[in-house]
């Protein structure tokens, strides 16, 4: 841990004194737990319970970011995950995490936060020159300007643009954090712990339902901790705390703070991301940084609340301009005054509630500007005790202050302009229900005139989801609480028992002010809004960008979104997009409901890739399978190779050997000259039994398996139904109704699935059962001229190995000193060879016994590389030839295809193009000059022809150094196949920059008559 | 997405692999136009927008092939049965 010093809490030295904007009392912070943190290198103090944003505001830091495109100074705008501006980089070195929203990050001791997208510093940012050029940077500017030459895009244009525009940069070091994954199957998932969520949780919790209550905030309670409202005689924050205490005492309720439900998926599946630790301090105590929740609830209550909208007017982005709801949150929840002199600009009743909260925090309110000409008396009464100048039918038309708001210009109803010196402007454009989660499965929101926003159709109970509270447009406290209770009683099936005390009932009247008109004021003065009016603060999209996009023919919100980037930031445009949509609706001259909304997609908030990967990282990405003799092989200095999930010895390094080729060549020679042993346990083994077992195998193999005698093995090939080779292997018959078949290591799972398909779907009437026994049996090949002697020492007392009793392609089940065992006389190497199979738990001891019994003949363990050398010398095909594009005929198995029976793939293997004589087919290849070396993948070209695809005759599939031939050899597929034997062609390999003259030869380099097999 | 396997119960889709729409019955290889029939059988699917009879393999469960009636518009699963026939007890 880089930051051990932070493990000791710092003394509570004058922390309050260093927080000039901290209120003397109130808030949900823990004043007895001071914290210190670092912001751009500056040491600052705060309290436990602060967010990074509230801590910065407490320390009077208002300039916290530079904007995406124009590098304009920006301040904290919201108090939640809808934040468009305050993106910071947290942590250092390998812990560095960019683009964290200061408004949703819980402050921890020793946090190191840095501003981003500013150079050389946040106060003086050269990039801000972009603002001066902004007339030249309209919507679609990059699309229009950086078109030609197209080759410049990737190398020149894009890197420069990305450098200038942008967000923070992630650490390039491996992620040091660990992530957990947990599944939850609950009766009821409640998303959001505001009034509706808490009421629902209490009601359903008391009824005994198993509940998961999540909130993306690190503190539960939603807006109950941000408002000064009353429930009965309790302050709403106190009410929330008492509810949470009761819920915490219920064993059937799981409360998860810092847990954002980021996505909703089919089958009532939800994904939650829980932040478990903040920073290195708690990392010392916790194993996991985040937890991914996969939640499958029976019922869901979405009490996700609402997000306040911004207002679009000139200069609406200066530090000090903040959502009115956020102003109340900073005052009431965090005990921070976000300014000294404030004005309020609103188009709805709700904004007025900010007046008294500001006043209580000692902030002077100089003006309340409401764009509506008439406002209800009860709303006007909210400003009665204030000295604020109330201006109805008025709008803010301009602002001043580069690094922080200094002044606003307001046009009254008549068009007369007055100016106010303020450092805080609370804006309220009404509320948008948070319905993103509800729309993730494609649900379309509807326009609701009453709340001037989109919500889900109220009768939508698809997939057991109920949307309640502000998320359903039930904005007042009483309506939200009732909504929660009603939903819970629908889930429990009993009438709500919880008796709701009388609550404050707020007004939510609104006449939306979407975008300031071109000219405001009634008289001829016709004041114009001055300065850029931002619709999307995060992506620097202004109302003129949307106008331009519309004039250029983009009329649909989804098109305008992509052309202007409105709503495409990490905040998903939650504070501004609806204003932009209204602008489009107006231009289209259609109602909002017709214009529609843009599609919200998961994740609701940004999610770390590490969290999604969970525990499946690095070597834990998938299971590692080891054979029974793994330890023995390790002791023999085996070098392992991954074959699918299996680890197989690739070669064994003997003392004195310095490169792999020496080891592999020695192993291959040992097999040819004496005897070697190879672990073949990883090959797929499938036990097939039943009175129709032979008939079944007959239908899946190209050759006649019904004709295999008991205690005999036959090599076989399986096709896919489209006529191409799928896999090869052997079928050993141990009884009239009992076979054990083998598959290649890589295809074992696929073949098992295929055979089940053939039985269960195609021919369920066949009396056959099958199961994979790959892991149950360990199997070893003993190959070479001395293999019979070694084998005899091992099993001679229990099995007659004479050629008469156990000839080539024989198999037998027998008892090896009490252990059930199987022996096979099969060969992949071309030498006389045996395979012995025993139950997996005996594998290692059999392997070790073979090595000690065979000492007399210097028995040599060999790996997959030597195995490949031997099979290439013998012309046996394997994975590189069984690529799904080769037919049985291509690989020389044409004659094996039975004409007397049907089998999978037979009909389509007969298609004209698949039996064409010119198809590339299997040959051997060796260099004309003995010392030349080529690689697999090299393309065959006629000598003298140019290297273009049209001239290509085929390719080399497998290559090995053959000690038997004394040169590099290969197998390949070439047009015309064996007709070309003796011909010289080029092996052209542009990837490795090689061009070798090779001779086409027979694929069988050793013992074409098979004498050694029987020797 | 979740599939209610007749043997294993309601399980996460990650345990299954899909083969897509179930083709019509495997043609008779002896029929006169067998090759054409097999080309249709192997390559042609109806790809309906709506309920679709699909084959799924429960590889990480009971290793049974299942007939799954799935609405391709809504991903709603309308019914699941064993491809080999039989009821929920596999009989």
Q: What would you give as the CATH superfamily of the largest domain in chain A?
A: FAD/NAD(P)-binding domain
Counting helices, strands and paired strands, the structural category of chain B is: mainly beta
Q: What is the mean pLDDT of chain B?
A: 91
Strand order, main sheet of chain A: write it out.
43-44-45-42-36-46
State the domain count of chain A: 6
> What is the percent of helical residues of chain B?
10-25%
**What shape does the CA trace of chain A take?**
elongated
Distance between the termini of chain A: 66 Å
Radius of gyration of chain B: 15 Å
Low-confidence stretches of chain A: 1-16
| CATH architectural label of the largest domain in chain A | 3-Layer(bba) Sandwich
Mean pLDDT of chain A: 92
Largest binding interface between chains: A-B, 25 and 31 residues
Order of helices and strands of chain B: EEEHEEE
CATH architecture of chain B: 2-Layer Sandwich
What is the tally of beta strands of chain A? 52
Q: CATH homologous superfamily of chain B, by name?
A: Folate-binding superfamily
Q: Give the oligomeric state.
A: heterodimer
- Per CATH, the class of chain B reads Alpha Beta
What's the CATH topology label of chain B? Folate-binding fold
């Amino acid at each position: 841990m880089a930051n051990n010093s932070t493990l000791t809490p710092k003394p509570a030295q004058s922390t309050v004194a260093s927080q000039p904007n901290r209120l003397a009392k109130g808030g949900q912070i823990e004043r007895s737990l001071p914290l210190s943190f670092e912001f751009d290198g500056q040491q600052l103090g705060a309290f436990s319970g602060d967010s990074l944003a509230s801590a910065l505001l407490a320390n009077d830091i208002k300039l916290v970011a530079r904007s995406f495109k124009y590098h304009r100074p920006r301040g904290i705008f919201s108090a939640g995950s809808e934040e468009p501006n305050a993106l910071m980089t947290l942590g250092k070195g390998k812990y560095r995490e960019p683009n964290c929203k200061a408004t949703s990050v819980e402050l921890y001791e020793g946090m190191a936060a840095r501003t981003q997208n500013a150079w050389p510093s946040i106060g003086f940012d050269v990039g801000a020159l972009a603002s001066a050029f902004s007339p030249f940077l309209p919507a679609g500017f990059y699309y229009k300007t950086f078109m030609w030459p197209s080759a410049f895009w990737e190398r020149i244009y894009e890197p420069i643009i990305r450098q200038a525009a942008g967000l923070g940069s992630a650490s390039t070091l491996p992620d040091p954090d660990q992530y957990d994954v947990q599944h939850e199957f609950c009766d009821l998932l409640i998303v959001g712990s505001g009034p509706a969520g808490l009421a629902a949780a209490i009601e359903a919790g008391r009824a005994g339902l198993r509940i998961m209550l999540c909130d993306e905030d690190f503190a539960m309670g939603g807006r109950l901790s941000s408002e000064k409202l009353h429930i009965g005689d309790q302050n709403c924050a106190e009410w929330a705390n008492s509810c949470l205490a009761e819920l915490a005492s219920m064993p059937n309720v799981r409360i998860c703070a810092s847990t954002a439900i980021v996505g909703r998926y089919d089958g009532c599946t939800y994904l939650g991301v829980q932040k478990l630790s903040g920073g290195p301090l708690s990392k010392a105590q916790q194993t996991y940084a985040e937890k991914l929740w996969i939640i499958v609830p029976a019922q869901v209550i979405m009490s996700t609340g609402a997000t306040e909208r911004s207002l679009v007017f000139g200069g609406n982005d200066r530090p000090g301009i903040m959502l009115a709801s956020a102003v109340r949150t900073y005052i009431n929840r965090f005990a921070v005054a976000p300014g000294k002199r404030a004005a309020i600009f609103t188009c709805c009743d709700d904004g007025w509630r900010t007046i008294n909260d500001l006043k209580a925090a000692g902030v002077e309110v100089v003006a309340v500007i409401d764009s509506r000409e008439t406002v209800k008396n009860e709303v006007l009464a909210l400003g009665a005790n204030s000295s604020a100048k109330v201006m109805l039918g008025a709008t803010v038309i301009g602002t001043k202050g580069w690094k922080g708001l200094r002044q606003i210009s307001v046009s009254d109803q008549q068009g007369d302009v007055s100016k106010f010196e303020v450092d805080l402007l609370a804006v309220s454009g009404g509320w948008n229900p948070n319905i993103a989660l509800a729309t993730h499965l494609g649900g379309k929101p509807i326009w609701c005139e009453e709340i001037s926003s989109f919500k889900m159709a109220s009768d939508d109970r698809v997939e057991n989801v109920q949307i309640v509270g502000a998320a359903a447009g039930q904005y007042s406290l009483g309506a939200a609480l009732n909504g929660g209770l009603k939903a819970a009683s629908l889930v429990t099936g009993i009438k709500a028992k919880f008796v709701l005390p009388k609550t404050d009932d707020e007004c939510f009247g609104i006449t939306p002010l979407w975008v300031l008109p071109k000219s405001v004021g009634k008289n001829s003065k016709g004041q114009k809004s001055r300065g850029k009016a931002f619709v999307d603060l995060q992506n620097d999209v202004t109302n003129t960008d949307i106008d331009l996009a519309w004039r250029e023919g983009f009329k649909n919100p989804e098109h305008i979104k992509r052309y202007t980037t409105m709503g495409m930031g990490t905040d998903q445009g939650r504070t501004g997009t609806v204003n932009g949509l209204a602008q489009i609706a107006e231009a289209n001259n259609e109602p909002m409901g017709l214009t529609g909304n843009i599609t919200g997609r998961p994740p609701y908030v940004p999610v770390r890739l590490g969290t999604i990967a969970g525990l499946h990282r690095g070597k834990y990405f998938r299971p590692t399978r080891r054979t029974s003799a793994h330890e023995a092989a390790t002791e023999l200095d085996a070098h392992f190779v991954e074959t699918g999930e299996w680890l197989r010895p690739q070669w064994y390094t003997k003392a004195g050997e310095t490169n792999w080729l020496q080891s592999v060549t020695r192993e291959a020679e040992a097999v040819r000259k004496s005897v070697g042993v190879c672990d073949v346990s990883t090959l797929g083994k499938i036990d097939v039994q039943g009175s129709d077992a032979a008939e079944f195998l007959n239908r899946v193999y190209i050759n006649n398996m019904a004709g295999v005698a008991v205690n005999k093995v036959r090599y076989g090939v399986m096709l896919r139904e489209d006529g191409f080779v799928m896999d090869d292997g052997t079928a050993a018959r141990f009884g009239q109704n009992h076979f054990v078949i083998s598959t290649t290591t890589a295809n074992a799972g696929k073949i098992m699935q295929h055979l089940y398909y053939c039985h269960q779907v195609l021919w369920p009437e066949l009396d056959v059962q099958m199961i994979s026994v790959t892991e149950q049996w360990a199997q070893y090949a003993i190959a070479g001229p001395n293999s019979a002697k070694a084998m005899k020492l091992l099993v001679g007392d229990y099995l007659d190995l004479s050629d008469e009793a156990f000839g080539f392609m024989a198999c037998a089940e027998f008892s090896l000193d009490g252990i059930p065992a199987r022996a096979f006389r099969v060969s992949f190497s071309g030498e006389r060879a045996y395979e012995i199979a025993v139950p997996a738990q005996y594998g290692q001891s059999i392997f070790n016994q073979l090595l000690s019994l065979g000492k007399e003949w210097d028995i040599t363990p060999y790996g997959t590389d030597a195995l490949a050398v031997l099979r290439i010398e013998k012309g046996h095909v394997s994975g590189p030839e069984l690529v799904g594009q080769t037919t049985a005929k291509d690989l020389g198995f044409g004659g094996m295809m039975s004409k007397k029976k049907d089998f999978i793939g037979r009909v389509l293997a007969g298609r004209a193009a698949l039996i064409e004589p010119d198809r590339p087919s299997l040959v051997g290849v060796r260099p004309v000059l003995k010392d030349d070396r080529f690689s697999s993948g090299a393309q065959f070209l006629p000598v003298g022809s140019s290297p273009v695809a049209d001239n290509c005759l085929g390719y080399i599939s497998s290559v090995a150094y053959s000690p038997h031939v004394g040169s590099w050899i290969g197998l390949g597929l070439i047009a015309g196949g064996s007709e070309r034997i003796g011909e010289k062609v080029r092996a052209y390999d542009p990837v490795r920059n090689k061009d070798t003259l090779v001779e086409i030869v027979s694929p069988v380099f050793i013992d074409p008559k098979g004498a050694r097999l029987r020797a | 997405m979740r599939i209610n396997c007749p043997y294993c119960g309601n399980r996460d889709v990650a345990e299954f692999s899909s083969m897509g729409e179930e083709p019509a019955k495997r043609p008779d290889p002896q029929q006169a136009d067998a090759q054409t029939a097999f080309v249709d059988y192997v390559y042609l699917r109806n790809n309906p927008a709506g309920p679709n009879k699909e084959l799924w393999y429960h590889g990480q469960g009971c290793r049974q092939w299942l007939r799954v009636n799935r609405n391709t518009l809504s991903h709603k699963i309308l019914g699941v049965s064993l491809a080999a026939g039989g009821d929920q007890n596999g009989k």
